[in-house]
């Protein structure tokens, strides 16, 4: 029986080219003792083909959890994936976020009981996102700020995420004005805690659905620790056609109620009451 150290839950929807690059990122991790669960919100056969091809060539244990395409239902597929996880430590990320080779190792090294880790991501423009190949991931060139600048990136303060380590990373994590939150692109924590708050609220569509579960976890006494300069992934460019104002209004009202009533549990989660 496998005893993995962590379960990496990757959400995806019809981005097979990006997902392939992301899976290559996990192929070259310094820590190999983890499983991958792909939470697929109704992608076509192209995504399944990418996953099946990767599974044939990789030693990583991967499970593909799929549900029928019925609009943006990321919260529902994530809840299904959570229940499939065989470990008590969950790393949540997206199918458009290539992990740096120390991604899983650093999440595990920094984890603390009764706490969640709020990691960072570095956004790439479309031109560089398209250019990244398996070779650029295996040799870590795509995480090299000089390679990125050479290929058209405009350097700014956020580039520190790719260049700092040690004491400077600790300093920036500690004194950044950005609050530690549950950001579904890069966050990790304990499965038993997620179960305690009943997972994601399945009424919610795009826009703050990850922050809401984080707010319930905080209300339940779990701390969120800022590690955005230590745990890094590259966010590949994409549009957001699923964004809509009605869903945002509903999500905002749910979050307001969670904060106002200091809710620790949703009736519309893993177990619907």
Could you explain the architecture of this structure?
The chain contains 12 helices and 10 strands. By secondary structure, the chain is an alpha/beta fold. It has a single domain, classed as Alpha-Beta Complex (Spore Coat Polysaccharide Biosynthesis Protein SpsA, Chain A). The strands form 2 sheets. It has a 7-stranded mixed β-sheet, sandwiched between helices. A 3-stranded mixed β-sheet has the order 5-10-7. Strand 2, helix 2 and strand 3 form a beta-alpha-beta unit. It is globular. The model has no long low-confidence stretch (mean pLDDT 94).
Keywords:
seven-stranded mixed sheet, 273 residues, alpha/beta, Spore Coat Polysaccharide Biosynthesis Protein SpsA, Chain A, 40% helix, three-stranded mixed sheet
Gyration radius from CA atoms, angstroms:
18 Å
Task: Write the CATH fold name.
Answer: Spore Coat Polysaccharide Biosynthesis Protein SpsA, Chain A
- Give the neighbour order of strands across the main sheet: 3-2-1-4-8-6-9
Low-confidence stretches: none
Count of DSSP-assigned helices: 12
Q: Quickly give the CATH architecture.
A: Alpha-Beta Complex
| Percentage of residues assigned to helices | 25-40%
Tell me the total number of β-strands. 10
Q: What is the CATH C-level name?
A: Alpha Beta
Q: What best-fitting shape do the alpha-carbon axes yield?
A: globular
Cα(first) to Cα(last) distance is 34 Å
- The CATH homologous superfamily is termed Spore Coat Polysaccharide Biosynthesis Protein SpsA, Chain A
- Strand share of the residues? 15-25%
Q: H/E element string?
A: EHEHEHEEHEEHHHHHEHHEEH
> How would you characterize the largest beta sheet?
7 strands, mixed
What value does the average pLDDT take?
A: 94
**Helix-and-strand structural type:** alpha/beta
Instruction: Return the domain count.
Output: 1
């Amino acid at each position: 029986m496998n005893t993995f150290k962590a379960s990496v839950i990757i959400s995806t929807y019809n981005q097979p080219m990006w997902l392939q690059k992301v899976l290559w990122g996990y192929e070259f991790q310094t820590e190999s003792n983890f499983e991958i669960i792909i939470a697929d919100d109704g992608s076509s056969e192209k995504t399944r083909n990418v996953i099946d091809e990767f599974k044939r060539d990789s030693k990583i244990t991967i499970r593909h959890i799929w549900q029928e395409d019925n609009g943006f239902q990321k919260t529902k597929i994530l809840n299904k994936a959570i229940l499939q996880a065989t470990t008590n430590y969950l790393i949540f990320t997206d199918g458009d976020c290539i992990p740096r080779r120390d991604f899983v190792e650093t999440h595990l090294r920094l984890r603390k009981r009764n706490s969640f880790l709020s990691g960072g991501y570095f956004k790439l423009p479309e031109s560089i996102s398209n250019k990244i190949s398996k070779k650029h991931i295996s040799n870590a060139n795509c995480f090299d700020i000089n390679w990125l600048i050479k290929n058209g990136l405009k350097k700014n303060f956020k580039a520190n995420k790719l260049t700092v380590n040690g004491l400077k990373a600790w300093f920036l994590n500690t004194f950044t004005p950005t609050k530690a939150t549950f950001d579904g692109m890069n966050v990790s924590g304990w499965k038993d805690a997620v179960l305690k708050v009943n997972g994601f609220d399945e009424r919610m569509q795009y826009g703050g659905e990850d922050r809401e579960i984080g707010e319930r976890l905080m209300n339940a006494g779990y701390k969120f620790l800022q590690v955005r300069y230590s745990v890094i992934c590259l966010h590949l460019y994409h549009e957001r056609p699923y964004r809509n104002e009605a869903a945002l209004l509903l999500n905002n009202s749910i979050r307001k109620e969670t904060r106002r009533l200091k809710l620790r549990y949703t009736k519309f989660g893993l177990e619907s009451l």
